[in-house]
Automatic annotation (TrEMBL):
It holds the Pfam family ATP-synt_D. This is V-type ATPase, D subunit. The lineage of its organism: Eukaryota, Sar, Stramenopiles, Oomycota, Saprolegniomycetes. One of its GO terms (molecular function) is proton-transporting ATPase activity, rotational mechanism. It comes from Saprolegnia diclina (strain VS20). Keywords: Ion transport, Transport. Belongs to the V-ATPase D subunit family. NCBIfam families: V_ATPase_subD.
Amino acid sequence: MSTVQVPPTRMNLTVYKAKRVAAKKGFDLLKKKADALKMRFQAMLREIQKTKMTMSQDAADAFFSLSQAQYAAGDFRHKVIESVTTAEFRLENRIDNVAGVKLPVFTDVETAREKSENIGLSGGGGKIQNCRDKFRHLLKALVKLASLQTSFVTLDEALKVTNRRVNALDNVTIPRIDKVIDYISRELDELEREDFVRIKKVQANKIQAAKELALETEAQAAAEVASGVPVFTASDLDILAAFEPAADADVVF
């Protein structure tokens, strides 16, 4: 018997069949969503791995170029700090929608570069420019990695929630609804069998009563014939006797 006590009526059977259809439709939609999120999750994981592998080499090249620039031009950090007034590298945040899951994505926006030709005039200008380009490339890779990892965490949590819902529908909700439908169907079948047996019993009782009445009538007729008393049937009676004035009640005006 089902763990959910539901009155076994045809109305409830129709309601639970509709619930089963809705649950299966929801299961199919969530399954497709989980598959889409899983594909994006795997692609993002490969992209993160690839970015980390290239980023290690980019970081090594950037810091090696910094060492070369410092060797060629000396310590130029204070000159760079003094020449910078506004940020040349900015970030923009946008939302990427993947199967209803909003993933944050960071994109870099470059503004107009400030002129800094006075840095490295005494020597090492080319090395400083090369160092600037290397670190700019490293910064872009760092922004890309931060965007991927932030989206990865959000996507991982959404994938876990979706998988839990899929498993709950597949292993709990739909089997429970099926048990309720099976319980109601069995109870309705049992009620139909009981009604059928009851009707057959009533019909058998009526047939038996009719047979007994016929036998009793035949026995009474045979007894009257044997005693010599005339037997009157319904066709021999005066059908107008019931309409005689004597049969009516007195009417007082």
